[in-house]
Amino acid sequence: MRPRRKPLGLTSKFILVFNGIAVVVLLLSYLAPFIKPQMFWPIAFLGIAYPILLAVNILFIVFWLFRKASFALISLIAIGIGWSAINKNFGFNEAVPDTLERDTSTIRVMSYNVRMFHDDEGKDAQNQGDILELIKEVSPDVLCIQEFYSRTKGRNNMRKRYMEELGLNFSYFIPSARNDYDAYGIAIFSKYPITSSGNVDINTETGIVNKIVYSDINKEGKKFRIYNVHLQSVGFKQEDYDFIKKDIPTANVDVKSTRRIGSRLKLAYIKRNKQIDSLYSHTKGAKTPYIVAGDFNDTPLSYSVNKLSGDMQNAFVEKGRGFGITYNGAFPNFQIDYILASREFNVQNYQIVSKKLSDHYPIWSDLRL
Length: 369
Fold this sequence. Notes:
Blueprint: H1 10-29, H2 42-48, H3 50-67, H4 72-81, H5 83-89, E1 90-92, E2 107-113, H6 124-138, E3 142-151, H7 158-165, E4 170-178, E5 182-190, E6 194-200, E7 212-219, E8 222-230, H8 238-247, H9 255-283, E9 290-295, H10 303-309, E10 313-314, H11 315-319, E11 321-323, E12 337-341, E13 346-352, E14 363-368
Parallel strand pairs: 2-3, 8-9
Antiparallel strand pairs: 1-11, 2-14, 3-5, 4-5, 6-7, 7-8, 9-12, 10-12, 13-14
């Protein structure tokens, strides 16, 4: 006679219900890359919450393995369905060796949001030098910088210093704001001749740092285009960061602050939606292989990243290792910087330089054309 199954207790039943809810929400997060925030913005929040949803479901698996192993399949199957989402957030490739010998036949592309060279302790002059030395160590052929700051003359003419000290003799700099003394904006530097440059119209207001620029580059007869991207920032104020750091961890959540933060995120999602659509259309007109690098201000399971990645190679997915965290500020501590390459390129490696000199970590990749 078959032994009678022991019924679930009340606590286990409640946990099973919450497990079911967690699975449904996780499955919905897989839709975030495919739905325009303009059409249905709430789904975008699930994309940014994916790492948390994944962790919750893993905890349910562990719980059921000790209670009723068959129920662990509920979350396990849900996670398996979204395996591609795991690959976008966590790299399983070999680490780049410290003694990597430079292959001069490749194009080393680097992207770095330098936060106008500000550091957390107000030692901006020292930080300028430290960032310059870091870039020297990487020795990129093409450098995309977001939130770039430069004075018009003197030691702090960073545009001139980068060209002279890094051997990046060609540059394209579009200021978001400038005067007779200094300027800040977005810049492309190259060791190889820049034959033409321009910007992608994304309808940003004057003084806003978010821009998309491009340069056509000729490396010894091989022509390609590089896009430097800085998509819409969330625009958190100090009160928002204070709320995230102090109130949320202590469960002191007030409705006003929650709505304010939600509203900022919603607006940023919708703006990035429009900006990435403009960029996507522009890339379709490129007559050469092209690279898109920069600060997307969006996570791997977002519409903006997925829109471009569908036709391109994501250097992190191809060659990255470990958690792809590129933002080290207060929120969100996720991967928001990317290097994407059209199919003509072969991605050789990818590296996140985990040295905190800005609120972003620099990233670089060697690409063969």
